[in-house]
Structures are given as structure tokens and as C-alpha cells.
Amino acid sequence: MKEQLEAIQAEALEKVEQAKNPKELQEIRVTYLGKKGSLTKVLKGMGKLSKEERPVVGQIANVVRDAIAKALDDKSEMLEQIALEKQLESEAIDVTLPGRPVNVGGPHLLTSIVEEIEDLFIGMGYEVREGPEVETDYYNFEALNLPKNHPARDMQDTFYITNELLMRTHTSPVQARTMQEYKGEKPFKMICPGKVYRRDTDDATHSHQFTQIEGLYVDKNVRMSDLKGTLDKFAKKMFGEEREIRLRPSFFPFTEPSVEMDISCKVCQGAGCSVCKGTGWIEILGGGMVHPKVLSMAGYNPEVYSGFAFGMGPERIAMLKYGVNDIRGFYLNDKRFLKQYHKA
């Protein structure tokens, strides 16, 4: 039996040496060390040996098993190392080759304009507020002095979801919600940028979805001169220190008096050209003093508090500032358009 064990060891080690892949090694392991392997079969015959021979043969069997197992493990490790070296060789990276350029995105032009406006007003003590885009008729109209059947509602073709729910037509509802939140007891400054929706035909200057930024300042003794000073600072920051502004009488249900603001044309410097249609001025936004009814409905005493409000469209500001002649460029995701305004 000793001779059998030595022969099994020699035969197994030779086959391990000749093995070329892990599959062959596994077959050798099963053939010699498995439950039905050669070594196991020999060991099953140890019952026929004398008590003196069993320990000797058992010790030899253990040596043979350990030798075969070690040879298998060593060969397996060697084959794995060879495979790894081949893989590394085939996947080698030539670090001397020039790299491929990576296209890096950047903020959308409208995002940049909104953030620039936010930074300006935050510097003047305003907080940035947000509100729901699906709004109630009350906050979108009634709380802003636009009761049911008010003719001014026709100016804002509205996407109604139900009789009382709609897609907001302006960001002014955020102003009403903020005033109600403060319960008529706290002065504040706020702006509210966001998307608004109107049933409009899309063309070069109109869109059914666009962006608005509205501002509101409520405190004691707020005057029209405060509004003018704020808007003058805004115009000079966005369009240059040489810009002049003018306020024209207008009408909005939620402000009284109401004004439209124009800026001097940067192309002709106010002399008159095709861009400003010969007037020297370009309309930019609307505003006015908060209507006493709006203050009262929100809980503020109009005998004590006053305020001003204004609303602007970032798309229009961007079009004037950068010479964009078609509002649809902001929404079509055309890289040729967007990359012109990408600030690295």
C-alpha cells in the first residue's frame, strides 16, 4: 500500500505540472483527492492492515495528500498570476497619448440671469421665496385684487385644472402667501423667481411657459421713490452704469399707482434706433405701490404699512442684455445656442 500511495503522488504531481488552466487543475483535484478519488480508494483498504501498519500508512497518506494539495494550490496561484499579467499587458494604457477632450456643461443662460438677480437683491436685504406652480384661484387672483369676473383676468389666459385650481400665471401668489404668513405684523423684503404658465401662442417673443421674478417690500413709510431707487440700481447692475431709467403710468390691479419701467437703449444711447423703435427707450418691467386692498386682505393695516412690488421676466432681460432675438432659443436645448453663453 505504501508503494501505491507513492505512485499516486508521483502521478498526481506530474499531471499538476502539465496542467495548463484552472479547469484541468480542478479535474486533477477531483481525480486524486475527491470522495471517489484514487487516494480515497486506497485509504478505504486500510481496514485490512494490521494495527502496527495502520499508523505508518496513515502518516504516509497524509503526507501524500498534503503534497498533492500544495502542488495544486501553487500551480493555481501561478496560473492566476500568468492570467493577470496577460490581462494587464492587453489593457495597458499608454500615458504618453494625448487625452480626449471632455465637454463640460455649465449653467443655462436663464439660470445665470436668475442667480445674478438673486445675488443683487440678496445684497439689498431681500430673501428668496418659492411657491407652488399649481396654484389656487384665490391666491393667483382674488388675494391680488382680481375678484371673480374681473376684466383684468382676460389679460392672463389661464391653464385651469379645475374651477379653483390652475397653473399660476405669475409669481405674485408667493407675495400674497408671504404677507399672510407674517400676519400683518412684520416688515420684509422678498423676491420670488419661478416658472409661470399662460395660454399663449409660441413665437419669437412669446411662450406658454416662461420665468418671472417678482419683488415685494412692505414696511412703514415705503414710498414710490424707494421703488425708483431700487429699480435704478437693478438697471445699472444688469445693463451698465450708463443706463438711465424712466417710469411711465400704467395699470395693474394689485398696485396703485402702477408704473412701467423703461431703460435707455444701449444701442443708440437714447438717440433713437430700430432696436428701440426710435424712442430711445426699451420697456423692461412693471411695478408700483401695493394696493391697499391687497395689504388689507393679507392682514396688513394699510394705514400703517405700505409697500412696493415689481415683476420682471428673466427671458426679456437676457434677450436685451445679450442680443437674443428669439425666446424659443432658451427652451429648445440647442447646444449651438447654449454654448455661446457658457461661462467657463
From TrEMBL:
What reaction(s) does this enzyme catalyze?
Answer: tRNA(Phe) + L-phenylalanine + ATP = L-phenylalanyl-tRNA(Phe) + AMP + diphosphate + H(+)
User: Which prosthetic group or cofactor does it need?
Assistant: Mg(2+)
The protein's matches in InterPro entries, at most eight in alphabetical order, are given as: aa-tRNA-synth_II (IPR006195), aa-tRNA-synth_II/BPL/LPL (IPR045864), Phe-tRNA-synth_IIc_asu (IPR004529), Phe-tRNA_ligase_II_N (IPR004188), Phe_tRNA_ligase_alpha1_bac (IPR022911), Phenylalanyl-tRNA_Synthase (IPR002319), tRNA-bd_arm (IPR010978)
Gene3D superfamilies per the UniProt record, alphabetical: Bira Bifunctional Protein, Domain 2 (3.30.930.10)
Q: Where in the cell is it found?
A: Cytoplasm
Q: Which Pfam families match?
A: Phe_tRNA-synt_N, tRNA-synt_2d
Name one cellular component (GO) term: cytoplasm
Instruction: Specify which residues bind Mg(2+) according to the UniProt entry for this protein.
Output: 256
Asked if the record carries the keyword Cytoplasm, the reply is: yes
- Which residues does the UniProt record annotate as the domain Aminoacyl-transfer RNA synthetases class-II family profile? 109-340
Instruction: State its Enzyme Commission number(s).
Output: 6.1.1.20
Q: What class of enzyme is it?
A: ligase
Q: Which SUPFAM superfamilies match?
A: Class II aaRS and biotin synthetases (SSF55681), tRNA-binding arm (SSF46589)
**Similarity comment text for this entry:** Belongs to the class-II aminoacyl-tRNA synthetase family. Phe-tRNA synthetase alpha subunit type 1 subfamily.
NCBIfam families tied to this protein: pheS
Relate the assembly described in the record.
Tetramer of two alpha and two beta subunits.
**What is the protein's given name?**
Phenylalanine--tRNA ligase alpha subunit
State the species of origin.
Oceanobacillus halophilus
